[in-house]
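request received
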Amino acid sequence: MTQALSPRERILETATQLFYAHGYRAIGVDRLILESGVAKMTFYKHFPSKDSLIQAYLEKSTTGFWTWINSITEKYLSPREQLIAIFQAVAKQAISPACLGCAFLHAAAEFPEVNHPAHQTALEYKRGVLAKLEALSQEAGAANPKALSEDLMLLMDGAWAAARMFGAGNHAARVAQTAEILIDVQTSKK
Amino acid sequence: MTQALSPRERILETATQLFYAHGYRAIGVDRLILESGVAKMTFYKHFPSKDSLIQAYLEKSTTGFWTWINSITEKYLSPREQLIAIFQAVAKQAISPACLGCAFLHAAAEFPEVNHPAHQTALEYKRGVLAKLEALSQEAGAANPKALSEDLMLLMDGAWAAARMFGAGNHAARVAQTAEILIDVQTSKK
DNA sequence: CCTTGAATAGACAGACCTGTCTGTATTTCA
DNA sequence: TGAAATACAGACAGGTCTGTCTATTCAAGG
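response:
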């Protein structure tokens, strides 16, 4: 009957809310403990340091992202449709009030040293996205799949940046149409 | 014979280096004072708070940006060429080792509350860029200048994001060609 | 029942943060 | 030369940060 989340899950849930909304350095351990209703020792038992919690949060976010992407792409057969669907989902997400940008871009902003663990994790995530876009571009018959995937990546990160900067109803609304233009131009539709 | 910069200029110069490279919260007043070789009281005389220095830095960056943009556009007559030239310059900048992304995006990442002064300043800057792109899009004969400017903005911020995340030699290299595609498609070239 | 592991509350250390204050030295300019 | 403004060095206050520690309570299983 113990429906409540475990301490570890509560901490991670709180971290998800707070890190995403306010940033990594802005949120202290005391606040995380307070809002997740957990003792300090419990916190440090599950996460030996604040950095390790940041790490866990980024990994959880990565998993969540791919779950989201898969839920979108699995509804379509053709790679072109999958790409379009991804960018439609990105547009919808980016203009929603719940969207505060991309946690990984924020991590890179706050931890600029490329060898910092958080930056590394963010980088790996972005490389993964790039790889997925390239694979779909390839399957979609792009003349230069790498080039198309890089272009699409610029659009996607531009959309997340717009979300953080401008808030809900920003100019990322059009990102799906824009992606479609690039896909059309760079794909041999013959 | 006193060629050295004034205390205020030294502080602002140091702030430019440190804030850009490491972020706003990561750099403390003590470090700024140490590296600019200034007394603490001198610092607080010229900048009544750290926030006001951040503000001054962002305003200086805005000025620098427009000086840069103007130095590029003034070499071309047609709005289309100006747009292309801007994105060629962005590409060149974004892939250079000196580029660490966009200070304003970082400000939005670190100060998410839209009414925070630093976020506000960043927002005004971005609105300015958007307006400039829209004006050029209009003059270039875009069917929908607002739409084209928003698309180009996504590309530009995507390029800055790539610079911060991936470091030198990132995938923003292509941003000028990509921009050109969008300009061509959305402009009545008749 | 009793033991063991886990969670709780909260004090504490030591570092670091912003901003203030005192007092001295240097520069500028009349 | 002398006065006023400016910059210097560095101590200090008060708060916040991460992470450690003690001591108590709760819950489950043998």
